[in-house]
Write a structure and sequence with these properties.
CATH superfamily: ABC transporter involved in vitamin B12 uptake, BtuC
Largest sheet: none
Radius of gyration: 23 Å
Number of strands: 0
CATH topology: ABC transporter involved in vitamin B12 uptake, BtuC
CATH architecture: Orthogonal Bundle
Number of domains: 1
Structural class: mainly alpha
Order of helices and strands: HHHHHHHHHHHHHH
Low-confidence stretches: 295-300
Shape: globular
CATH class: Mainly Alpha
Distance between the termini: 62 Å
Strand content: under 5%
Length: 300
């Protein structure tokens, strides 16, 4: 039985997949805390799709795909901001228009200039076939993201919580916004190989949303989210061997299961706890009621 459970560790590609997935899952989870607090989940979804034309164009001209993807993501973010400020169109409509346009442009480029990179790889990822060069690239991007978050997490926290207060405290909110957008685009690039453009947004949102339900302290939130990201990503890659299914799909399903558990059973902010608290509040007499209802008489 134990030998059967250790079979995935006998293959180098599975060991690589579990290690890289776990590392990327932890980094994405840390960043997801800021995205959740800022309310940028939809923007993260847009950027994860907007990097596709950058990847395709970078491969066409022979540049590192991470460079093209980051530039494409930032260009999409700036386009959304420009249209949102200059028109009356609602923000959700602007995001939908821009990210679908960028994604469609990426699909068109891939169809016009076929190369060794396929649309399926970009959309769904291929962590089991990741090359050493891609591992090094993802590690560098992740290390830079961790370094920036470690140095600027307090400033980013204030910016995400209250931009006006951050501005009053003397912080450059424009720089902080661009920093967070750059980290978001770069991390989406790093996780692209693991889960693909379609599922990367789940790794960038779900851990933070789950941790948000479990604690009111941001430090604990980051710890819970990062632990969840590492464990679910590593376990998802491991289970994909036995299920013979998508690694990214296994990772996201595990993260979603944990979110559902937190949604219903979180001690303070879960659905069940909320119903219990609402019931207690309904049973308590109102303070402004001078004649609270008497307790019902019980029959002998």
């Amino acid at each position: 039985m134990i030998d059967h459970l250790l079979v995935p560790f006998h293959y180098e590609y599975m060991v690589k997949a579990m290690l890289v997935s776990g590392f990327l899952g932890g980094v994405c989870a840390l960043l997801s805390c800021f995205i959740t607090l800022k309310g940028w989940s939809l923007l993260g979804d847009a950027l994860s799709h907007a990097i596709v034309p950058g990847v395709a164009l970078a491969h066409i001209v022979g540049l590192p795909f991470s460079l093209g993807a980051v530039i494409s993501g930032l260009l999409a973010a700036m386009t959304m901001g420009y249209i949102g400020q200059r028109t009356r169109i609602r923000e959700d409509a602007v995001i939908g228009i821009v990210f679908t346009t960028f994604f469609a442009a990426g699909v068109l480029l891939i169809s016009l200039y076929p190369s060794n990179i396929s649309l399926k790889t970009i959309v769904f990822g291929n962590i089991l076939g990741i090359a050493n060069a891609d591992i090094a690239q993802s590690a560098i991007i992740s290390a830079i993201t961790l370094l920036v978050l470690g140095l600027k997490w307090r400033d980013l926290l204030l910016f995400c919580f209250d931009p006006n207060q951050a501005r009053a405290a003397g912080l450059n909110t424009t720089v902080l916004r661009m920093t967070l957008l750059t980290l978001l685009a770069a991390t989406a690039v790093a996780a692209l190989q693991a889960v693909g453009a379609c599922l990367v947004i789940a790794m960038l949102v779900t851990p933070g949303a789950t941790a948000y339900l479990l604690t009111d302290r941001f430090g604990r939130m980051m710890g819970i989210a990062s632990l969840m990201g590492v464990l679910t990503s590593t376990l998802g890659a491991y289970l994909s061997y036995y299920l013979n299914g998508s690694t990214g799909g296994c990772i996201v399903v595990l993260q979603t299961l944990l979110f559902l558990l937190a949604l219903f059973f979180a001690p303070r902010h879960g659905v069940i706890a909320g119903r219990i608290q609402a019931r207690k509040s309904a049973e308590m007499p109102r303070i402004d009621d001078p004649f609270p209802a008497a307790a019902p008489e019980t029959s002998p």
